[in-house]
Amino acid sequence: MCGIVGYCGTQDAQSVLLDGLKRLEYRGYDSSGLAVNTSAGLKTVRAVGKVSELLRALKTRRLAGSTGIAHTRWATHGMPTEANAHPHRDCTESVAVVHNGIIENHASLRARLEQSGHAFASETDTEVIAHLIEDALKDGAQLSHAVGAVLPMLEGTYGIVVASSLEPDTLVAARLGSPLILGIARDGYILASDASAILQHTRDIVYLDDREIVAITRAEYHIRTFENVTVQKPVETIDGEAADLQKHGYAHFMLKEMMEQPDVVLNSTRGRLDAENGTAVLGGLRDVEKQLRDIKRIVIVACGSAYYAGCVGEYMLEEYAGIPVEVELASEFRYRKPILDSGTAVVAISQSGETADTLFAVREAKEKGALTLGIVNVVGSSIARETHAGVYNHAGPEIGVASTKAFLSQVVVLSLFTLVLGRQRALSLVMGQRIVKELLALPHQIQVLLDCREPYRAAAELLADAHHALFLGRKYCHPIAHEGALKLKEISYIHAEGYAAGEMKHGPIALVEDGFPVVVIAPRDSVFEKSMSNLHEIRARGGSVILVTTEGAPYDASLVDRVITIPKTLEMLTPLLAVIPLQFLAYEAACARAFDPDMPRNLAKSVTVE
Questions:
Q1: In terms of DSSP H, where are the helices of 82-229?
Q2: Within its chain, how far is the Cα of 172 from the centroid?
Q3: Distance separating alpha carbons of residues 294 and 298, to the nearest angstrom
Q4: Residue 274: in which H helix or E strand, if any?
Q5: Is the peptide bond before 338 cis (omega within 30 degrees of 0)?
Q6: Digit-coded pLDDT (tens) for 222-278
Q7: What positions does the domain Glutamine amidotransferase type-2 occupy (predicted)?
Q8: What's the gap between Cα 482 and its chain centre?
């Protein structure tokens, strides 16, 4: 993986492809490249590092033509080298392929191809596709038929786009488990793995589904299934503007997205809160309303920050809706033979809606007869289309690799989901109305936290030079401790661990010594006094304490080194406020250590492989 762009039209392909690659940079990558059909044949240029390195290479090797493909690579097979960067070519250099996904049987395919005389130039799994297509073209087959003949040989997941000098005005793409979108512009067609690469040119798109192939020329496109059945698909219009993908004066996308969080809460709740009846109205769940009333159990599946959002949702749903909830890492869910039935609702949370492990978990749940629901940010994404029903976050595009506003919106949506199920069951009208009231107050409270950044900088000073850190929280703030630790290690590269505060004496306390930083998230809630006991234990061993607590909370100032206060709210909504300082701690620590928080090393924004 990571980002794919293809163009076939009347414009300069190199310019269109480079623009698309720049808009895909946020996904994370280690190398990039492009191939264009020129008057001298199919030419390829690749480079290690940022797209700026590719631009530098193209200054002396401009590729003039109107059809081409491009890719940003996040290494899965083979080191980040120019040889391993995409596009990959065949022995005759007449075929070029870009690919997201993993070809699981690439080793056996490679061995067979090498035995028949093919020479490989890279260590990647992708290159086998180019050589297989080379063989399929030897009998004079059209490019689309050659690609179709190769696909049954591939085991694994892929989104591929293929160009060939034998058909210089044609591109062929196929999808199985990795997203691809076809954009219909006035000057041609654009293929991409992400809508952000298309928005500059068109908002009219066609979503490719699994086991579909599309062949495009300058004038037309044709879609068929792997079984060679022609498919007529609707052209859809996507929301969003290219301007949404700009920093608008902020130093980093992450900072911009953190500052947008008051609006995110407004957008996630707009038109959905019913103050009079103390509930929420979620139109995306209307078609499964009866099934929701009958469910006996909820399983939340997610990865990364979305998993921790799900953990907050577990507390909410069990306390206020009275439904048993389990939260599962999607990467483990499908392998442990989960017991599911029609009385189970499986809720999949994913910002992109394309997270491979979460998507496979949805498919597993559907096969077992469970009701599947999606909480996603990207309209029309695979999870949004494959679940029975769902709710959009409406957080807007999130470019920073480390999730901030999307995480917040996921927790907001889970609180709305709790209102819906709670009011159907045990949640009283009075309590429902109070939750709605406090949700409406959140945008202002978050803005207060955003307007006072100096405490975050001061606290980050204790972290910036540290090699390790510990984050502790109880009850609703236990998942937030994990999320805070994840943010710190993602973008500042400081090893950090999140723990339930009650578990500190069962192991983590062994790490605490003079100057060891411990972030304690302890709002004034039902477990506040127990959290205060942790401060004594840390201080007794010389640790440095950063305390995140509620305004006016009675803590012992002699036990803490830095204090960050948050406004008062309901216990169930405290995570939505407590997470803001933790985002800033990570951001300020990364900046102090001269790291780019938007592009952390080795990470990709959307993980579309297992």
A1: 106-115, 127-137, 143-150
A2: 27
A3: 11
A4: strand 273-274
A5: no
A6: 999 999 999 999 999 887 655 566 777 888 999 999 999 999 999 999 999 999 999
A7: 2-219
A8: 18
Amino acid at the residue 61:
R
Which segments of the chain belong to CATH 3.40.50.10490? 253-450, 454-592
* Whole-structure pTM value: 0.80
CB-based burial, 480-512: b 16+ in 10 Å, e otherwise: bbbbbbbbbbbbbbbebbbbbbbebeeebbeeb
Per DSSP (E only), the strands in 117-238 are 156-164, 171-176, 181-185, 188-192, 204-207, 212-216, 221-225, 230-231, 236-237
Give the amino acid at 308: Y
Token match 């590729």: residue? 63
Residue range 253-450, CATH number: 3.40.50.10490
Q: Tokens in use for 442?
A: 């959140």
Give pLDDT tens digits for 372-428: 999 999 888 889 999 999 999 999 888 888 999 999 999 999 999 999 999 999 899
Decide which of 1.10.940.10, 3.30.460.10, 3.60.20.10, 2.60.120.380 is the CATH code for 2-245.
Answer: 3.60.20.10
For 463-495, the pLDDT digits (tens) are: 999 999 999 999 999 999 999 999 999 999 999
Rounded CA-CA distance 191/163 in Å is 12
Q: What is the pLDDT of residues 495-545, one digit of tens each?
A: 999 999 999 889 989 999 999 999 999 999 888 888 888 999 999 999 999
CATH architecture of 454-592: 3-Layer(aba) Sandwich (3.40)
Question: Could you tell me which of 100, 446, 436, 405 has the C-alpha nearest to residue 269?
Answer: 436
Whose CA is closest to 172, among 221, 103, 100, 128?
A: 221
Residues found in the chain: 610
As annotated, the residues of the chain forming the CATH 3.60.20.10 domain(s) are 2-245
User: What SS3 state is found at 559?
Assistant: helix
* Catalytic residue IDs: 2, 605
User: What tokens were used for 230?
Assistant: 């022609």
